[in-house]
């Protein structure tokens, strides 16, 4: 029998339906792989029972001649930012260690309703704050990739969805959920040679997802290819009355609509994304992507997004401001961590709890956010940043008058070694330079692998689309995927 762990979502779904293999065989194979991959530290909690129960239900339905659910027989990983009923949900923070929700997030419930099983809760940067998966209270996630020069330096799997990207690249799961606030699906996807899409803000419910920055956070799928992302996104998306920002729109059949034929489409190349010091390899891959899209029938046009250079500064005011507001709920009173020194009053308990519960990066962002929201600075920083955000969104709107989609690199470099940038927050924040603008504008964007750099590490290309045009983003990404023919995978060492 085929090693089912080499298969993606579509192949597993179709194989279970045809009887080529059983769902329980799939679940057992992935459970074994997850259990044997502790060195990657991709999982905070393993849930083999959940995956096996879902597999048994799928096999029983098939044996009874019932119609199978869309994801029947497909086990997945769940980023530990999604609340899962009866299963610890930590956001990779000591603050929530031991917190077991009594409810299910809307997105995870939709996936279980579609027949998927859960292999475990995936590690991430603490409260989704980070670009390298080095801020988790439960330890760094390690990328399965290594530089081909023989160096054994542990590489960053990207962040914050680094557990998801590492697990998919290592074939521990066929797909996983991620969340993207400023690039946390797309940058890890680029670093590990997989695909990931951030849909339009509001496509996927935020209810039951531990909040970082509420006007930016958006759930999305990560998988090995574009088709698998389309299948996952169909199951995850949909209106939710429990989320005030949820889009009340029908969910398209994105998988059925996939087409790599881009004739009649115009793809814009934003001139402002050619940043100083960009590696030659990234520039070359970008040009290669342009050629691939031309080959698919697209017309290439240059566009201008003049406020791009202000995107990162605006983001690192808005996101921490929202984080400082959202994380104020962690006070040691109602749930999660509590530090209560002898004789402490309420304020002292708050301070001790937050000092012990939040890691340094989370504390840094809370302090920045509290500062920019404080009296005397609110207008100078936060109000100005929101005005800049509006200008960035308007830049995209003007670009759509000239083109249907945009093509950019996903990240300014390949994966770096753990510890290489952690001492310099600004160097780390610059990793989001290509992903943040579309997050601020709330529009869909996807990363697909385009090739390898000189060290044999993956590089990603990003497609950005109009609001609600996930189909266009998926189709252009499929055109890139087919022409790139990316089949590289990490050699097993773990």
UniProtKB/TrEMBL annotation:
Catalytic class of the enzyme: ligase
Catalytic activity: L-glutamyl-tRNA(Gln) + L-glutamine + ATP + H2O = L-glutaminyl-tRNA(Gln) + L-glutamate + ADP + phosphate + H(+)
Pfam families noted in UniProt: Amidase (PF01425)
One biological process term in Gene Ontology: translation
Single GO MF descriptor: glutaminyl-tRNA synthase (glutamine-hydrolyzing) activity
Coiled coil: none
EC number(s) given by UniProt: 6.3.5.7
GO terms for cellular component: glutamyl-tRNA(Gln) amidotransferase complex
Keyword Protein biosynthesis: yes
Record-annotated Amidase domain positions: 26-474
Record keyword Transport present: no
Range of residues in the leader sequence: none
The entry's keywords: ATP-binding, Ligase, Nucleotide-binding, Protein biosynthesis, Transferase
Active site: 79 (charge relay system), 160 (charge relay system), 184 (acyl-ester intermediate)
Biological role stated in the UniProt entry: Allows the formation of correctly charged Gln-tRNA(Gln) through the transamidation of misacylated Glu-tRNA(Gln) in organisms which lack glutaminyl-tRNA synthetase. The reaction takes place in the presence of glutamine and ATP through an activated gamma-phospho-Glu-tRNA(Gln).
UniProt subunit comment: Heterotrimer of A, B and C subunits.
Family: Belongs to the amidase family. GatA subfamily.
Entry protein name: Glutamyl-tRNA(Gln) amidotransferase subunit A
Species annotation: Sphingomonas koreensis
UniProt lineage: Bacteria, Pseudomonadati, Pseudomonadota, Alphaproteobacteria, Sphingomonadales
